[in-house]
Amino acid sequence: MSDSIQLQIHHVSIIVSDTSKALAFYSGILGLKTCERPNLPFPGAWLQLGEHQIHLLEVPNPDRNKNRPEHGGLDRHTVLLVNDLDAVQQQLEQQDIFYTLSKSGRRALFCRDPDGNAVELIQDLSVIN
User: Are 121 and 106 contacting, i.e. CB atoms less than 8 angstroms apart?
Assistant: First the structure.
C-alpha cells in the first residue's frame, strides 16, 4: 500500500436476528447511543461510538454462529474500549450474561451479544487517574 494512503475505521457491521434484542445489549447494557440511519430495505440500527459507528443489520445470517468457542478471544470479535470495566462486569452479571476474562493478562473481558457475536471490552487505561 502506498505511504500516502491513510486508513481509518468508519464503522463495523454486525448481523443480528432481532434489532430490539441487539439494542437491549448494545444500548441498554453497553450504553451506545443510536444515530441517524437512512431508510434501508431491512431492519437495523446505527450506533455512535465516538467518531465511529456500529451498524446492526437484521438480515439472514450466512454464518449461524454454530460451534463457536466459549472464549470469544478465540473467535472473530469486535473490540471496544471502556472507561470502567468493573461497571461493565457488574452490568453483565446483573443481566446473567456469561463472560470470560482475557487470557492475555490485560484488563479485558469477552462476552457475546444475543446473536452470539463475540465482543471484547478492554479497560481504557488513559481514563484511569
Answer: no
